[in-house]
Each structure stands twice: as structure tokens, then as C-alpha cells.
Amino acid sequence: MTRANVLTKPLPLHPALDLVMERIVDVPPELVWRAWTTPEHLMKWFTPAPWKTVACEIDLRPGGVFRTVMRSPEGRESPNLGCYLEVIENERLAWTNALEGGFRPATSSPVCGEDAFFTFTAVVSLAPHGEGTRYTALVMHGYVARARRHNEMGFEDGWGKALEQLVAVAKRM
Amino acid sequence: MTRANVLTKPLPLHPALDLVMERIVDVPPELVWRAWTTPEHLMKWFTPAPWKTVACEIDLRPGGVFRTVMRSPEGRESPNLGCYLEVIENERLAWTNALEGGFRPATSSPVCGEDAFFTFTAVVSLAPHGEGTRYTALVMHGYVARARRHNEMGFEDGWGKALEQLVAVAKRM
Lengths: 173, 173
Known about the structure:
Strand order of the largest sheet of chain A: 1-7-6-5-4-3-2
Number of strands of chain A: 7
Shape of chain A: globular
Number of helices of chain A: 4
Largest interface: A-B, 42 and 42 residues
Largest sheet of chain A: 7 strands, antiparallel
Strand content of chain A: 25-35%
Oligomer: homodimer
Helix content of chain A: 10-25%
């Protein structure tokens, strides 16, 4: 497959279905990429404290598994199973929990009905910005109600805190 | 993205969740590929007669739309919306209806519960075989009940008839 086959057009945004967070961070795209794609690093920043990420599996290719297990402050564990869709080194990482590894339709995600806000596709885009990175996180939902609920749950705050943790980890790499 | 990033390992088969049809056909992979990826050709063979495919949209890249509209002998139309996952020319074409164009989680597909057998990921693989093609269609489901029901609905017969139609179309190209 040549690069020309890959999704290079801007993704079509849908204001009622998409949540977007864009920030400038002062670490270069290469370090942000490593933080996102190495289990050892990802587990240190992925979940806003006091939540923890206690397991992580990354098979970094389209169709590969992206699996994490989060642990709440009370000790409750919640597994997250997804599938990578696009892997463009230092530029773009996309995955969805509507599929599992090998592109198989998901069974473990609650994909049913308006209430199942956790079915999403996420696209993290990185672009050089001075000596840092323009960091864009796009989370796409299938239903307006899901997007709204995800927003009310604190999407921007959660992804923002995780990104701050990522930057701290990247600076120690 | 380099080819090495693409899913090159054999897909993990799961006997209870996957349906597979493998056939040798006497047209080369290049023609089978064209029949699968050109709306004008696809509309002629995609639906076993007397069903018809009356519309087709193909945006041939990972994340691109694959949309068809089928019409029953009684004139009832059923739209099918999917998203390409892998596009490796003359070799492999994968798509799912768990996602729509741009990798967005699907809304139009009945993705809920054991009964929703039509949520699937399909992988068509082509390999040269003499002057013809070894043609493998793999359809992956998330639930055993879905795979079983798809099988009982006549998966092999339906995909087999469509393939015979494809070969006839390819020979006239």
C-alpha cells in the first residue's frame, strides 16, 4: 500500500458528533509519538490521576490491538479494547473501540443505542510547531447524544490532564 | 506509512465467529480487483440475481466510504454503508459496516445485541493461481449467534453466486 492510499484529506468534522481538543505542547512530535505508542510510557500518563493505567497492549499497525486496563481510585478495573486504524509515524494515530484486533466487530464495548457514548473513533494528529507540537485530539461519535454525554463527562478536562501528564513523561524520556 | 505497517500477518481465524469461502476462478487478480473497486462494474455482479445493486459509492482508501443500495425483486431498497479498512491493490480489500466513512462509528447499521448478525468485517484476498485467482472471502462477526445466522441465511451460496457473476463481468471487461 502506498501512502497515497491513506486517508490524507482532512477528516470531515461534524460539530454535533465530534469533540476536538487542540493544544500546543513544548515537546516535539517524535516524543509525543513515543509516549502514545510504547506501553511502558503510555501507562505513566494515559489516565488522569488518581486513576491508573495498569495494563497496556499495543500492536502498532492498522488492524492491531490497542488494549488498556484502567483502575479507579477505589480499585475497580475497566478494560478497554480497540483496534488501530491509521498508524502514520509522528503524524497520526487513529483507533476505534467499535472494532477489536484484526478489525473484528467489537463485542466487549457497549455499542448499543443512544446511551452507548463510549463507542468512538479517536484520531490524534501531531504537527511540528516551533520546537514543540501542535496536538489535536479528535473523538468521533455515531450519535449526538453520545457526543454530548462524553462532553458533559469532561472530555476536554480529561484529555487535557492526560496530555499534561504525557508532556511530563516525554520530558523525562 | 510504509507497507510494513500494514496488516501482513495472516488474520487470526475464529471458527465460531468467521465464515470463509475460498474458490479458484479463471480470471486474474487484476480483473477481480477492478470488479470489486469500480462502481460501474460492481453494480453488475454484487447482488445475486434477482436482487439488484442500484447504487454504489467507492472511495478507495482506508477510511473511505463503501456504500451500496440493493433492491429486492419486490422493489424494496436496502442501503448498506461501510468503511474501507485495508486497500492493497490486487491483493486485499477489507471493510466493515461497524464504521462509516472517515472511520466514524456506524449509526445506520443494527449493531445491537446478539441478533444483529449484519455487523461484520469482510476481507477479500486475492492471490495469483496459474492464470487465474485464488479468491478468499472472510467475513468476521462479533457474536457466535450472528455468524451462525449469517451462515444459515446462505452465506456461501450468496457469496458464491455473486462471485460467479463477478467472473462473468470480468470476462467481458
